[in-house]
Specification:
heterotrimer, B: 398 residues, alpha+beta, MetI-like fold, 4-stranded antiparallel sheet, C: 363 residues, mainly alpha, 15 helices
């Protein structure tokens, strides 16, 4: 195996139709990012197929969160290309807004809006970005709330919910925008252990329905059962990526082996 | 080995993005518009002003600085008469402002600290009285307080001929409080020098004492020795110069008193009003500073065996100061700014002198600009001090 | 384990000196020799100052007599207040039209009391305030519904104080928010303009701005255009207050967790929408207690318009004292005025403190 970062696909993604495998939904080519002098992401090449589920793991400071935050332009890249669903991310504001409407993000600390009720949290985006009429937005919101099994809390406020409930609401909030891709930035890291399962269950269901997902997480059980690809990042580079079987049973690189020995 | 492949950089698409959608260019565009608008409005106001000034034949520029002021100033730290220039008059004003500000700041810090500590006292009566003082002083406008005190000093004290003399050498009347001061003698500058010398020597002694404590563990009572020296040594000088006791007594001549040191009712009302008003705010700041210290700290200090005084000096004080100094400096600045109200009760501070200048020369713009510049100098120097202090004292964090 | 094996503890009463009135006295006033000394000292001082004060203010005083009767007493002449009450409170407002400013003030104070309840803080309240202020302005100025016009030069006394404070605060707030957002902007020109404005205004006393507005504004305007004195003072107050509001709002914006900004961005909201719907509603709520503090300062600072010869309630009092009949009773008049200001300001500051406690624990 070469040591430069190349895409290694040893297994075709689950539940994917052959025609869709042609055009990637996210294309990252030769992407670099610097914070001042610090080279935080170097030579990232990543093609994500529609309905593909990718889990990204690695030590802290490896740049995994920064990578996915570049995909919805919460961070800017200095070199390379990022193309999401045919739109290239650049300084063009129109493109940025288009990409953000199509990419949903779930944060580690939920980031629900505390001054709005749950249902208002969900309808904010559709009403103001997609110009959906309020009634329609609320119907969609209730549907997603039921999907994440939290419909009875619709009128409550985020401060009244537990961490696990808030994160499920956050997932529903992103889904209300009908995204093509969902990004998860360590969605369960801030949760008490007993609440992790309820959030992972929602994510698993989403995956089985065919949502394209990039998940930064330490939950290796989730990776093993759901991911099409597991990616290991260290020091700003993609070190290794493989199907879960190969990745966990037969890691190719020393750094990957070291990391796995520390967390498993 | 991690070779970084930098050989084929791919830049973001060069397709022409209209500047109103390009994030970077839009920012520049907005800024240009903002600068344009501000510039446009400024130019409009400026040209109007020029036209109006020309029409009313008002001079511009600071040429009036050299002209004769032809107005008296009630009190002054330096020699001044009506035939002096406007520049000198304004200087007198600045010095008067600084005088009030300086004395006011010292008195406010002392009074505010006392009241702040009193507010936290376990003595119910003391705490309530301090609380009442704070509430009353904070909630009455400072200008009203100034008028009130001025009315007290002006109306409630008798005219000079019936002045009160509680002690020989102190005269209280509605033209001010006049105090007998020592007659000028060469002993006094010498005493002053000795005082300074003791202070400087005391500071060095303090440092030496700390170093000695670090080495040998024995504490050196530098503070107590300095205080003793400050009292004894200047007195020695006084004695050496022949123990002069001649006093410059206030004497009634005609309608007023001559001699001694006069504190005018304007000065006293201004000082009293400013000090009382500002010290209420300082008291709250001091109280908050002391309360900000975790009780656990005090308990831990006592558990080690430190005495109350040491707990205060080594644990409470340094930490409370960090919290207190920033808002304290802004209150000091407020006091300086509020001293501008002197114009309302007739004390000749800088604003009052500038106001008279404006009335006489008609040059309003230069006058108001001068006032603003002087106060900006005060506030910017205070800000600089505060920034330096904050950096100096910032707690080192993980 | 049964009750019989556990000896019942004798319930002893605490020693008599620890409870009741004596206990309270002991802990609060006489807990140590030092404290006891302090208490004795304070009681002594109170005994020294209080009786003469009470004598002057209540016993020897006259409350509603003629000016001549007042000259013959040693005590306070409170009569100066009832005799000049209308002038002190309403100033030069024309006779017979006095009901208008009184009604305007009543509406304002009524709305202030109504707004104290946090459960009523909705968008409708903001509209209510807008309407109320417009009604106040109309009542004061007149010209409609058969009310004769009263020029602003005749607006004086307490209504003028309230108009300057509340109109000033309400107009300054949007400007302050704008300045705060500008100061946090990443665009250097905008940021510099806002920083320069804020620091300059905060560095100078209000009186210099009042001078500027009353003396310099006429020079800024083209020939023939005048703006009236009250408006000039109001503009100075607005420009002044906006800088302080900007700093307070900036504190609120800084206190907002970055995640809120990011969540709003990742939904695709524009800057305007994100500010209006997500950031500002939360930030402004945080800064309500310090904003009440600013309103309190503005209210006290309106007294400065005395210096540019506007007849607020302090100046009307001074005019009363310049009347030879009532000259010399400054102490009584100023004490009355002080009580008036104190009542209003104390109510506002204790409300602000209560609010801060509520909002702190509410989150």
């Amino acid at each position: 195996m070469s040591t430069t970062s190349e895409i290694v696909m040893n297994d075709s993604p689950k539940n994917i139709s052959p025609e869709a495998a042609v055009k990637p939904i996210i294309e990252i080519n030769g992407m670099h990012k610097w914070y001042g002098d610090f080279h935080v992401l170097s030579d990232i090449n990543l093609h994500v197929q529609p309905q593909e589920r990718i889990v990204i793991c690695g030590p802290s400071g490896s740049g995994k969160s920064t990578l996915i935050r570049c995909i919805n332009r919460l961070e800017e890249h200095q070199r390379g290309q990022i193309i999401v669903n045919g739109t290239e991310l650049s300084n063009d504001i129109k493109n940025i807004e288009k990409v953000r409407a199509e990419v949903g993000m779930v944060f580690q600390h939920f980031n629900l809006f505390p001054h709005l009720s749950i249902i208002d949290n969900l309808t904010l985006g559709p009403i103001w970005v997609r110009k959906t009429p309020k009634k329609e937005a609320e119907e969609t919101a209730m549907m997603y709330l039921e999907k994440v099994q939290i419909a009875e809390q619709a009128k409550k406020f985020p401060g009244q919910l537990s961490g696990g409930q808030q994160q499920r609401v956050a997932i529903a909030r992103s889904l209300c925008m009908n995204p093509e891709v969902m990004l998860f930035d360590e969605p369960t890291s801030a949760l008490d252990p007993e609440m992790i399962k309820e959030v992972l269950d929602v994510m698993i269901e989403l995956a089985e329905e065919g949502m394209t997902m990039l998940v930064v997480t330490h939950e290796m059980g989730f990776a093993k059962s759901v991911a099409d690809r597991v990616m290991f990042m260290d020091d700003g580079e993609i070190v290794e990526q493989n199907s879960p079987d190969v990745f966990f049973d037969n890691p190719q690189h020393e750094r990957t082996k070291l990391f796995l020995s520390q967390i498993l | 080995m991690k070779p970084k492949d930098n050989s084929t950089p791919i830049k973001p698409a060069e397709a022409a993005v209209p500047f109103w959608r390009d994030a970077g260019k839009r920012a520049i565009f907005i800024q240009i518009i903002a600068l344009f608008m501000v510039g446009g409005v400024s130019y409009y106001l400026f040209s109007n002003t020029q036209a109006n000034l020309a029409r009313q034949s008002i001079a511009t520029g600071f040429g009036f600085f050299g002209k004769e002021a032809s107005f008296e100033i009630g009190e002054s730290l330096i020699r001044y008469s009506a035939s002096d220039s406007y520049a000198r008059a304004l200087l007198v004003g600045v010095l008067n402002t600084l005088q009030v500000a300086f004395i006011g700041i010292i008195l406010t810090t002392i009074l505010g600290s006392i009241v702040g500590v009193a507010r936290l006292s376990t003595n119910w009566l003391l705490s309530k009285v301090a609380g009442a003082f704070i509430e009353v002083m904070q909630n009455i406008p400072v200008l009203l307080q100034l008028f009130f005190w001025y009315a007290i000093f002006y109306e409630s004290f008798p005219p000079p001929r019936q002045a009160l003399t509680p002690v020989n050498g102190i005269v209280l009347c509605n033209r001010g409080f006049i105090f007998a001061i020592p007659e000028a003698h060469s002993a006094y500058p010498a005493m002053g020098l000795m005082f300074l010398a003791v202070l400087i020597g005391g500071w060095f002694m303090n440092r030496w004492g700390h170093r000695r404590q670090e080495l040998t563990g024995q504490a050196f009572p530098a503070g107590r020795i300095t205080i003793a020296m400050i009292i004894i040594l200047p007195l020695l000088i006084w004695a050496l110069y022949g123990a002069p006791t001649a006093m410059n007594m206030p004497e009634l001549r005609g309608f007023n008193f001559q001699g001694g040191l006069t504190l005018s009712p304007e000065f006293m009302a201004l000082l009293l009003g400013l000090v009382l008003y500002t010290s209420a705010f300082v008291a709250e700041i001091v109280r908050a500073g002391i309360q900000s210290i975790n009780r656990g700290q005090i308990e831990a200090a006592k558990a080690i065996g430190l005495r109350s005084g040491q707990v205060l000096q080594l644990v409470i004080f340094p930490q409370a100061l960090r919290v207190i100094i920033p808002p304290l400096t802004s209150q000091m600045l407020n006091l300086t700014k509020n001293s501008s109200l002197a114009v309302a009760i007739g004390y000749a501070d800088f604003v009052a002198v500038a106001n008279t200048t404006i009335n006489q020369t008609g040059q309003a713009i230069e006058g108001v600009a001068m006032i603003m510049v002087v106060y900006l100098v005060f506030s910017l120097s205070t800000s600089l001090f505060m920034n330096w202090y904050n950096k100096h004292m910032a707690l080192v964090e993980r | 384990m049964t009750e019989s094996t556990v000896a019942k503890r004798e319930r002893l009463k605490p020693p008599i000196t620890n409870v009741g009135v004596i206990g309270w006295l002991k802990t609060n006033l006489f807990s140590s020799w030092y404290n006891s000394l302090l208490t004795v000292l304070m009681l002594g001082m109170l005994a020294l100052f209080l009786p003469p004060l009470v004598q002057w203010a209540f016993i020897d005083s006259l409350w509603n007599s003629s000016a001549e009767a007042c000259r013959n007493i040693d005590g306070a002449c409170w009569s100066v207040i009832p005799h000049n009450f209308r002038f002190i409170i309403l100033g030069f407002f024309p006779e017979g039209q006095g009901w208008r400013p009184v009604l305007a003030m009543a509406l304002l104070l009524g709305l202030v009391v109504y707004s104290k309840d946090r459960s009523r803080w909705k968008k409708s309240l903001a509209w209510l305030w807008m309407i109320n202020l417009i009604v106040m302005g109309t009542l004061m100025y007149g010209g409609v519904f058969g009310m004769p016009v009263v020029e602003t030069s005749q607006w004086s006394g307490l209504p003028l104080t309230l108009v300057l404070s509340f109109f000033g605060m309400v107009a300054a707030y949007p400007l302050g928010i704008f300045l705060a957002l500008g100061r946090r902007s990443k665009m250097p020109a905008i940021k510099t303009l806002c920083v320069v404005y804020i620091e300059m205004i905060r560095g100078v006393p209000l009186i210099s701005l009042l001078f500027m507005s009353s003396i310099m504004f006429p020079l800024f305007l083209p020939e023939g255009v005048t703006i009236d004195k009250v408006l000039r003072a109001l503009i100075a107050i607005i420009l002044f207050t906006a800088a302080y509001i900007a700093e307070v709002v900036r504190g609120g914006l800084q206190a907002m967790p970055r995640g809120q900004y990011e969540a709003a961005d990742s939904l695709g909201l524009t800057y305007g929408h994100a500010m209006r719907l997500v950031i500002l509603p939360q930030a402004l709520k945080i800064v309500i207690p310090p904003s009440v503090g600013i309103l309190l300062s503005v209210f006290k600072d309106t007294s400065l318009v005395v210096i540019i010869a506007l007849y607020d309630v302090l100046k009307t009092t001074m005019v009363t004292l310049s009347n030879p009949e009532w000259a010399g009773y400054s102490k009584e008049s100023y004490i009355f005025l002080a009580l008036l200001y104190f009542a209003f300001c104390y109510a506002m500051s204790s409300y602000s403190r209560r609010l801060e406690k509520e909002l702190h624990t509410g989150h």
